[in-house]
Amino acid sequence: QVQLVESGGGLVQPGGSLKLSCVASGRAFSVFAMGWFRQAPGKERDFVAARGWSTGSTYYADSVKGRFTISRDNAKNTVYLQMNSLRPEDTAVYYCAAKRLQIGLTDPKGYDYWGQGTQVTVSS
């Protein structure tokens, strides 16, 4: 079992920044690929970013490329999502997730463990 706990969400003005954190406990964190997803009210859960466990390969949704950065610190069992130049359309609940297989990282259906989510609201 892997337990994931997100933090760092909040209210921010358009153009502002937030850094989300996701701390993992349980099984060896370093062997899991980690992803961030988001879900706005009435919409499906969408892929945001993912990072493999060893090579450091990263993947981003087109809508966040150049604005968001995913990183991980295996020593701290933590994955981060740095979000810059935030827009109102980034408003959503953000979830981190862990996946054993290092393929299909953009598909939420393939992830094994999920956090409870943290709310991000971008509004003036």
The residue fraction in helices comes out at: under 10%
- Report Rg: 13 Å
| Tally of helical segments | 0
Strand portion: over 45%
Which of globular, elongated, flat, extended, rod-shaped describes the shape? globular
Average pLDDT over all residues = 93
Low-confidence residue ranges: none
The count of DSSP E runs of length 2 or more, i.e. the number of strands, is 11
Sketch the major β-sheet: 7 strands, mixed
Order of helices and strands: EEEEEEEEEEE
Q: By helix and strand content, what is the structural category?
A: mainly beta
Distance between the termini: 40 Å
Q: Features of this protein?
A:
single chain; 124 residues; mainly beta; four-stranded antiparallel β-sheet; 0% helix
